[in-house]
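Appendix C. Worked example: Ribose 1,5-bisphosphate phosphokinase PhnN
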Amino acid sequence: MAGRLIYLIGPSGSGKDSLLDAARPRLAERGCRIARRVITRSPEAVGEAAQGVSPTQFAVMEAEGAFALSWQANGLCYGIPKAIDEWLAAGEDVLVNGSRAHLAQTRERYPTLLVLLLTVDQTVLRQRLLARGRESLADIEERLARNTRFTEELIAANGAGLCVLDNSGPLEHTVERLLCCLG
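Step 2, the predicted output written as structure tokens:
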């Protein structure tokens, strides 16, 4: 039996990387792999433990078919290694840190995927984004407004095919909710 693709999405600052780090041991106990993304940003950049490559390297990898999924967002390129198809074929579940904007294309390729939407209270999200110091206040407010629209549209369009995880409280609670969603 083929494994299941678990597609984690949520706004920047919602805590996806923290959730993945906290859930990693419990997911491993269940035989669920977490795919490591390839991103066109400096390897020294703070954030997830992704493989950082140059835009040229990314383009070469993409042309050579190295990715099962790839997309562009926020001026960066993201790729999920082709190895996930082997893991899924071997019956392993695979969790990927995906893109809300790329969900439709991902669903076309993996129609049985489980979508996890990580949300966070707007006040908490604003504080997290301000603390990171990557964007101006105007950019943050624009991101928050866009996030509200995106979340409402996703919930309306996906209904029961979506597991919503609120990450406004203790991370341990979000990990438990994640595990419940996986069954």
